[in-house]
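From: lab user (bench 3)
To: helpdesk
Subject: output format question, protein + zinc ion

Hello, I'm new to running complex predictions and I'm not sure whether the block I got back is the full result or only part of it. Here's what I submitted:
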Amino acid sequence: MRELEVKTLSDMSIKIGLEVHCQLTKLKSKLFCPCSSDYRDKEPNTNICPICMGLPGTLPTLNKEALFYALKVCLALNSEPNKRILFFRKNYYYPDLPKNFQITQYDRGGGVPFSSGGVLKLSSGKEIRIRRMNLEEDPAKIFYEGSITSSRYSLIDYNRAGIALLEIVTEPDMSNPKEAREFLERLKGLLEHLEVSEPDLEGAMRCDANISLMDGTRVEIKNISSFKEVEKALNFEIARQKALISKGIKVKRETRHWDEARRITVSLREKEEEEDYRYFPEPDLVPIAINEEMVKQIILTLPELPEKREKRYVKELGLSETLAKVIAYDRDLMKLFEDSLKYCNLPKKIGSWIVNDILAYLNRKNLTLKDLNLDANKLAKLAEYSEEYKVSDKKLKELLNELISGKKNFLEVLKTLKKEELVQKDEVLRIVDSVIKSNSKALEDYRKNKKVLDYFMGKVMEISKGKIDAKEVRNLLKEKIEEIIK
Amino acid sequence: MKRIDKEIDLEKLARLARIQISKKDKKRITKDILEIINYFNKINELKIGLSYKFFHQSALENVWREDIPKNFEANAILDQVPNKKGRYLRSPKIG
Ligand SMILES: [Zn+2]
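Helpdesk reply: Thanks, we reran it on our side. This is the complete output you should expect:
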């Protein structure tokens, strides 16, 4: 108790853990029945069948692809899949479950989670440990007639019921809300990258958080809808708990709900306890044995993972660590980068443009890459032409930005590039001529010693302030001087 | 066998199942549930541990299907629903 008093509030160690639910949106059908998983923008209750509606006499059958997708995520996170996958029933009576139970997995009562262990690295190098992953079915969506408080009825749409959901639970390894947000962003990038999910789709990636300050009482926050909200909810919760502790009030162990509109967390009426869910093995689904062969097959389908890619960009393509990090972890930027390199071999130039010009523009305007009329082919061509035409960097950036912002189309940019080169060529010729004319003594020396060319070079570069290409100047000078002294 | 004869928390069970039990039924249901629990207690005397082998009767494993969507005639199900609003199912709100 004494120690607690001595420590200031800002010293308090914070422990944050996350429980992420992500739909495997790339699947075509639900987890245990063949209903289409494409439910967004669909009329309510169109993707339903006797299985996901829990009608008597029906049997669920596991979607094999869902199992493979989950294994992909496991292997990418270095999480160890269990040799024998079992499903359990989690019983609770609520209209979002037509069967009155959810088919999920359970790590007690003889059950095992889908996988155990694993890590995801943050940009600082800090490792966030994964505790476990589970495969389970999504419940239905509930709406209310009028407002949630005044409504007497729930309106239920079972299109979402039975969609494959991957639950990823971390250890409480994050020490501030920023780290929690970065974890989610990296996880999202990975899931996109593995092509198992599109977490940007509405409701595709949801998150609960748990947080404890130094006195160790764990508070859970539910109902967080986006990454930005995670940071806000956690910041609010830290402030609330600190205020309590500073007044000498003990933090209560409870589940709170993030109220997005009011920007506060509110205490939830106590829900079921763990034992109230009466978990038991799902008798309708037989065990799944994961064998070496399966794992090997999946390893072969794994794309290059961001961490490895980042290293390759630095080592093999010569990108700076900063550029490599930004591009390797963002799927869209990565794709633009890699595709551009199919058309040209200028990784440093393309990499710098993507981060310093394109990404900067997107952030400024709050846009995504899809909003731009820009593709890998154009970017590569521009990079190649710019090498060929030897236009100053400043002018080039100007043109690139006009292309990004749509002020000029690609053809206009190329024309300007050509024109710009002509102007520059004229300029070089003019400088070379004037340098030769005003250095007649050096011209005489050149007859005896060809090294005097360097003297002329120096003069030209000095006047042009190094803005023009040295090799070109050298060729031009040599040509002109030889012609004069002939 | 250890028999359980004491009162069980029927109120809690009813709350979890979201049902109301009348005073009249309470006695009868309590008796039934006690019988069920005692039956399971008898099974629990077997020292088999919590092994997956006892979860399923068949030796089957790896039964799955390919990821091919096939839509059922949803209206056939909706037609059976007694309480609807438009295409939504309607149930009392549970707080
Ligand atoms: Zn279905």
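A quick orientation on your result: Residues 304-419 of chain A form one domain. Let us know if anything else is unclear.
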